[in-house]
Amino acid sequence: MSTSIVKDDINLVDQISSSRMIPNRGRPVYLAHLSDIHVTADCAWTKKDLFSKRFTGWINLKIFGRGFRFRKTNEILGALMMDIKAHQLDSIVFSGDATALGFEEEMAKAAELLGLNRPDALPGLAVPGNHDYQTASCVAQNHFENHFSHWQQGERIGNHTYPFAQKVGDIWVVAVNSSTPNRLPWDARGCVGGDQLQRLGMLFEKLDNSRRILVTHYPVRIASGKKERKIRALRDLESLLKVSTKGKVSLWLHGHRHDQFYHPTSQDVPFPVLCAGSATQNGKWSYSRYSIENCKLGVECRVFKPETGLFEKAESFTLDLPYSY
């Protein structure tokens, strides 16, 4: 079942505190969820790039309109960060695709626009998207992990980068890397991999009995409720669902798709799944704010208004969360 976001007179998220508080059990946790910002920059190309997915990505960017759709990215991110700072949320969740082509120059610019190189950088958690892992060299050189290191802190299994978990108030936010470089130009699939899945199970065992929120780039279902197309899907989705269910995940947050939507708890997926949409795509311009208290999730969808230059509330609703600890 797919559920479009609808208006609700109840707005739990409007009650967000104007000052940051020390996390303690019983207090609501407030999160911002943003995704798919696709920052571009002047980049140093090599001959090798001309024979990689970067070249077809460049064609899509320059010829088929993607660059035009993200032409206001710098302006939108400025307004978005101002809006987030005004509400003093506990943490930010970024679910991937910081860049258009996976260049380090794009990664550095994205981190700068999100304020990650500032002394007052906001706390957060980040996972890479398929565009951030556009080529094998992106992965080998850890471009995403290096520039987003401030949002890569947490509990881990050994020295492995993924998965990792951050404690925010009395909940765990768990980052899983679902992105992988692909050779073929049309291949946008993701994969968690058996080793990471095994570590995820171990990480769940390691965490205390607080509510768990899973963050990936790839979705469980698209907005219609159907499975993602094979060329864009997560290869081992069913295995990740099995490990997540066993690990008592209460909520799954993701990006990849550029529209906001959600799926409530169902027989196939025993927890809600929410997509933040794209924060910077022209005409979509969205991110979400969440309040989590006990078994209730308050969701506020915020969209950019070109006439005011600000993000404003669009819709709000509440969902029930499974598992009580």
Question: Your description of this structure?
Answer:
- By secondary structure, the chain is an alpha/beta fold.
- The protein has one domain (12-320): 4-Layer Sandwich (Purple Acid Phosphatase, chain A, domain 2).
- 22% of the residues lie in helices and 22% in strands.
- It is built from 8 helices and 13 strands.
- The chain has helices at 53-62, 66-69, 73-87, 104-113, 136-140, 143-147, 194-206, 237-246; strands at residues 29-34, 91-94, 124-126, 155-156, 164-168, 171-175, 211-215, 249-254, 261-263, 273-275, 286-293, 296-305, 310-320.
- A 7-stranded mixed beta sheet has the order 4-5-6-7-8-10-9, covered by helices on one side.
- A hairpin with a 7-residue loop joins β4 (155-156) and β5.
- α7 (194-206) runs parallel beside α8 (237-246).
- The longest helix has 15 residues, at 73-87.
- The two termini are 27 Å apart.
